[in-house]
Each structure stands twice: as structure tokens, then as C-alpha cells.
Amino acid sequence: MPDTTSHPGYTSAQTISVLTGAGTMLTMSMGMRQSFGLFVTPVTQDLGISVADFTLAIAIQNFTWGLTQPLIGAFADRFGCRMMTILGSLLYAAGLGVTMIAEGPIALWIGLGVMVGLALACTGLSLALAASARAVSPLKRSVTLGTISAAGSIGTFITAPLAQGLIDSDGWLLAMVGFLGLCVVMIPAAFFTGAGDKTEQQMAKIAAGSEASMSLKEVLIEAWNHKGYVTMAVAYFVCGLQLIFIAAHLPAYLEICGQSPTLSAQALGVIGGFNAIGCYILGWMGGRYPKHYLLGGVYILRSAFIVVYFLLPATPTTTLIFAAVMGLLWLGVAPLVTGLVGQIFGLRNVATLTGVAFFCHQTGSFVGAWGAGLLFDAMGNYDLAWQIGVTIGVTAGMCQLFMNDKPTPRMGGAVPA
Questions:
Q1: pLDDT digits (tens, 9 = 90+) for 238-282
Q2: Is residue 264 part of a domain?
Q3: Contact 353/341 with Cβ under 8 angstroms?
Q4: Is residue 3 part of a domain?
Q5: What is the count of structural domains for the chain?
Q6: DSSP state of 331
Q7: For residue 346, what are the contacts with CB-CB under 8 A and spacing of at least 6?
């Protein structure tokens, strides 16, 4: 029987190598990224800086990630993922090292901000999902992307309790050392993520048609002229804003509500665990139902549950229930966005075009991280921050529901991704 899992041109061994490497790389890189909010209190107290100083580092990280993602994606589309993923793993470790020797906000902005942000552009969702999408058949693509995205969630389930335990027992510096150990694991995973690079380059050379021959300028012009893609990219801004607001500011919010720091780590761990489930479910649903409807529903449901949580007293029970619900709605949008890009434009430039959309996502993360920190420093609470997040979340969700998801004329009768 023919192999219905691997993409034509890939051997089963190549497919397994790419998917295992991408999943492991995401487990490490996204797990650490989602746990940086646990360092807000110990780092600000130790260095004598404000909450806004720390969250500006997180904001710079997310903006750098988004700004560089289209360029790194374009490079990976043309020359392969392996060089970028390995470089990103090394840069991740270097950024953590600079953070550890910081004596003020500037070094924090460089290490945790610029360097880790650039590392995430190489080791995060865009390249991992692009490599995975190419390695499997169209029939298995959506559920595979959901499964790989789930790996990034499992990382939070592991790293958040690890970080909080080390912070409580030995301080935040030793917790960063623990993260350096995760970077060591990430390097061989990054190598295997690029196992299909040579196959993709050979397929691109022999492929006929416009998809293989378009210049970067032509790719971007085509994307700009597809209003559905533009709508999806702009709505992705809200996703970044809402997620980083919760990841970066939930620990500080729970602290002012009188809750234990342990609850923050538990909540982030619950988000990670349920996110693994949510990614798989949304990936599976994306292969059966219109992806733009699912995206719009996620943005609206997130906003509704944020309203409920912040209107209720913050207790361990309400916090963990909120974390579980948000986990189900967390990174599952990534396989849907990647699937939509493949459905509309094909796979040849998927890393480039998901990177452009991700720039919008990370612009939202910049606003959510730093803007909420500024509002907290100015007002002493997060009321206005979550109200703004809910308002634009509902607006984006409604726009997403009505986007045009039709393939470009160039794609003709191509099979949807």
C-alpha cells in the first residue's frame, strides 16, 4: 500500500526525523518562552528595576521575533531549515547567558529581548510547522500540524514547574542554568528538523509552474492582494496580544491578589498540558471544517473567558479552571494559520508567508507585554489592560469569521492543505 503519511519525495525515515526534531525543538524553545513570566518578581527585586522594565524585555523579544521571522522564513524556504534552527538554538543559550549577567535593564533588553527573540524566530512555530507541513501528505497535514504545535505546549508543562521549583529553592539564576540545559537538548533536535532540506531543494529544482519560480517580491504582492490573507494576518495580532498578556502578567496579577507564586507555575503548567490537547483537537478539526471559522471562534471564546475570570475573585480553583480553558484555546491557532496559508498559496513559500502573518502576531505580543506593564505601573491594576484585550479580541474574531479563504487563481484546483 502507498504511504499516506509521508509527502511524495520523502522517505518514512525523513518524515519521522523531521517530525521528531520539530516536536522536540518546540518543546524546549516554546516551553522556556512561555515560562519567562515567572521571573518577573525575582528579577525585578534582585536588579531593582520596575515591572515595565522587565516586560519591555519580553516585548522586545516578541517584536524582534516577529520582525525577523519573515526574513528567516524566506531564507529557510530557499536554503533549508537546518542552518537556521541550529543557529537559533545556540543563540537562545547565548541570550540566556547575557540575561544571567545583567545588572540593569539594558543587558536584560539585549539578552532576554533581542537575542532570545531572534532565537525564537529560528526555533519557534514558523520553521517547525513549515518543515512538518512539507514532510507529510495533504491528508495528514492538518492533524500533524496540530500534533507538532502540541509539543510546544508540553514544554510549558515541563519548564514552568522546573523554573518555579528552582527559583523557590535556589533563585532565578539557577533556574536560568536549568534553561541552558534545555538548550543543549534543543541543538540535536534542530539538526533533525532540517532532515528534509535536500529533498525540498531537489523537488524545487524539478518542479514546474509558477509556485517554484516566483520571486520574493511576487510572493509578497500576491499575499497583499489576497484580502482574506490580510484579514487573517491582522487578526493574528490579537492572538499575540492575548497570549503574552496572560503568560507574562498572570504571575504578577496573582501576586497582587494575594496568591502563592506556586499557583502561577501550576497555572502555566495547566495551560501547557491542556494546550497539547487543544492543539491536537484544533488540528484535527482544521482538516474537517473551515479553518477561518475555527480561528474566529477561538478569538471570541478566549475573550469571553477572560471577562469571566477577571470579574471573579482570583482563587486557586478559578485560576486553574481558567488556565485549562485558555490552554485548550492557546497555540491551536498556529496549525490553522499554517494550514490556511498552504490552502491559499501552496507550500513552496509557507515559511515566508506564515512569517509575515507572525510579524502581526508578535506586534500584538509587544503591545500586550509592554503596554499592560505600563498600564499596571500607572494604575496599579490590570483592569484596563484586560478590557482592551477583550474588546479587540471580539472585533478580530468577527472579522476572521468572514475572511475569504479561497485559493489564489495560481493555485487553480490544488488540494487544500
A1: 888 888 888 878 888 898 898 887 898 888 878 878 888 888 898
A2: yes
A3: yes
A4: no
A5: 1
A6: T
A7: 211, 410, 411, 414
- On whether residue 417 sits in a domain, the answer given is no
Residue 223 pLDDT > 60, yes or no? yes
How deeply is 31 buried, as exposed, middle or buried, from its count of CB atoms within 10 A (0-12, 13-18, 19+)? buried
- Cβ contacts of 376 within 8 Å, gap of 6 or more: 51, 52, 249, 252, 382, 385
DSSP string, 43-56: HHHHHT--HHHHHH
Query: Cell digits for 112?
Result: 532576554
Cα–Cα distance measured from residue 252 to residue 37, given in angstroms and rounded to the nearest whole number: 8
Q: Is the dihedral of CA 183, 188, 189, 190 positive or negative?
A: positive
Q: What's the Cα-to-Cα distance from 289 to each of 132, 325, 341, rounded to whole Å?
A: 21, 21, 15
Structural domain for 131, as ranges: 12-411
pTM of the model: 0.76
What does the pLDDT look like over 307-324, one tens digit per residue?
999 999 999 999 999 999
- For cell 524546549, name the residue: 28
The arithmetic mean of pLDDT across residues 45-64, rounded, is: 89
Q: Does 160 map to a domain? A: yes
DSSP for 211-260, please give it: HHH--HHHHHHHHHH-HHHHHHHHHHHHHHHHHHHHHHHHHHHHHHTT--
Give the largest Cα separation in the chain, rounded.
65
